Amino acid sequence: MEELIQHLNTIKIPQRDDKIYKDECIYCFDTPDSSSGLFVSLTTFHGLSRDHIEQYFRKTNHPVFLNIKRTKQVLSEEAIDGPAKKITRLAIGEPGGFIPEEQKYTFSETYEITILPSFITVPYPCEGLPEKITSSIKVILEAESAIKVAEREALAGTWDGEAKVISKHASNLMQLDNGRKIPPNNWKCDKCDLTQNLWLNLTDGTILCGRKFYDGTGGNDHAVEHYQETGYPLAVKLGTITKEGKGDVYSYDEDDMVEDPNLVVHLSHWGINITQLEKTEKSMVELELDLNQKFGEWVTPSKFKSIYGPGYTGLTNLGNSCYLNSVMQTIFTIPDFIHRFVDPADEIFDSNTNDPACDFNIQMAKLGAGLLSGKYSTKPKCEKDEVDEGQQGIAPRMFKNLIGRGHPGFSSNHQQDAQEFFLHLLNLLDRHSVHKVNPSNCFKFRVEERYECTSSGKVKYSYRPEYLLPLSIPLDTVTNKDEVDAYNDEKKKAELAGNKRAGVTTIVRPHIELSSCLETFTRTEIIEQFYSSALNAKTTAKKLTRLATFPDYLLIHLKKFTVNNDWRMLKLDVAVEMPDILDLSALRGRGLQSDEELLPESPSGVPVPVYNQEIWNEIMDMGFPPEACKKALYFTENRGLEAAKLWLIEHVADSDFADPFVPPGANSSATSDNAAFVPSSSGLEYLFSLGFTEDQSTKALKATGNDIERAVDWIFSHQDDLNSIEMENDGKETQTEFRDGNTQYKLVGFITHMGTSTLVGHYVCHLLKNNQWVMFNDEKVALCECPPKELGYIYMYQRINS
After folding, report:
1. 209 in a domain, yes or no?
2. Domain with 11 in it: what CATH number?
3. Is residue 593 exposed (0-12), middle (13-18) or buried (19+ Cβ within 10 Å)?
4. Could you read off the pLDDT of 565-601 as tens digits, one per residue?
5. Rounded to whole angstroms, how far apart are CA atoms 425 and 411?
6. N- or C-end of the chain: fewer Cβ atoms within 10 A?
7. Which domain holds residue 56?
């Protein structure tokens, strides 16, 4: 006790704004469930594992910790109180997703005070403890942990699978008096013979089948077609309605699951007495869980051999975070990322968790070490005849909260696009790589664009950086067209006969060769509205796109997502034949040739484009990015709304769709309005109030697109070099940032998406490790003898060094 009292001046009582990390070590994935428990500093309230506490003490000189140990005991089947406790919503972070953790186990916690460096222990609670220590520990134990606070703040206003927003149509929904009454059972679609996945339109009482799911099950889209014809917005899924007046209500107008507090009244209009109804069908959340567990035979755990050890650690799916899991598993196979974040452990440990850049580096290092160390990938002990259910995996909660902070999509539990997340991660790496080699340079390459003025024959070369090679999928080059046509004919006949599962077990996909995609990328493109400085007028130009440099790792992004004519997201269900060895020498750019003449520099520059404000407002209201709207109006010459919409549909999958618009013929460094960046006045005012200069504030706002919160983080993470970089050099790439070598590549990984759009479905990645393919399906890690290489979304090729 005397040893403890002499350190009393270092003890602090947590205040309202203090973050208390009592769920997990800030440097690794140890928790109170680990064998040594978790040590929470009574000074900083950081949680430390046994592996890190001594080093933390040497760096901070904070000696007193509360050791929390938690043990759990599996409950028997009888102890789980029957179906009443079965979960009816998505259990975030739970393998299987249905029974929550607290219902499968009983937990008990023990505490003791630990004093370093000698690891002297004092039991807690015990008599004679100073009140300051008792108060500090009491607040720590009663407070909500920092991780849970961050998750709650991030999810504010989002749908987590149960909580939904109240529909704007709920209070004043029009209901027709057409005399229709709905029976309590024996429902059938009004337009086909389906008897499941039926939706009751609350306006006119029609019963129609729902959307078709990506595996071929579901409905025939009659409910959504009815909305498109009538505009009646709300429908409830029959079979999900309970006696409590709950049910799955979908708003076609709001394009989301919603809450209808007047559902009982709306149902009674159609003669439905909820006391007679029982839930007979799965909710949309349960169906999504089912679909996420299927993914075809190739992801069925029983058909694969689980693998354990360093580099084979799974990541728990934290509420549709499979896109994050797949991307992070992929990048931590690359030496650049391992050397930057995992190897320099002492350097990362010295970081200050209150600095955004340092916090980012810590969490990257923590995740990398967790995946590669093997500490959290040990084979579970199974009794005789028990099935090996695989590892639990590590849960990247702190990383997910940090990397999604301030981002409306990645901070939520909605499914997101893996390609967009990858670019978001690269943006964070760029912001937080001050005075360090950015590991993402291993992906970076230069794209060469050659424009030839068709009137003068003179040329212009422009260059831009890229991290992924986006390839369109030419559907007119299908190699098995006859087979696909025959399959579709048989499937249509079966569906008309009422067999809604037709074709599910023997899907025939269109096959396309990668060479066809590459030819589409390199073919000559005719550019309209090209401003030729040789003519000082607009004309047409021929554009050729090539690669000026070839990175160490080439990421190929197959553009499988687009929109159809009714603006619904559409995924191309095709099989692209990806070779194991790839020669891209045909993509090598040549640069300016001796027999070519450059277009002259125009002293007056390109005329500022004029946009039709009326059309602009209409397409902006549809939710398209401003820069994409500028392109649509420019290339359609303001001809009208339909022309602009058609252009947007055709180009929505372009990798530069939302990038700043540079009129064809202008210098690539020009901005979309031919003027310098204009920082927001409110952003400048706020940053000035924090003591930053005008140059610093402008630079930060420019780097973050006038996002004030991100601008503050950016300044703190770039303070050392703000004054050493001239403002006029912003945006210019240096040749040293681009690695180059031969054009021979080997396939070493790919990420696959199963689902009908980026907003639903599931991501799985396959990685080539030690000459064998390994599947990473969230927390499941297994060898895979026949990986589905033709079904990938993002592919990673590694250069073959000659």
Report:
1. yes
2. 3.30.40.10
3. exposed
4. 555 567 888 999 999 999 999 999 999 999 999 998 8
5. 13
6. C
7. 2-143
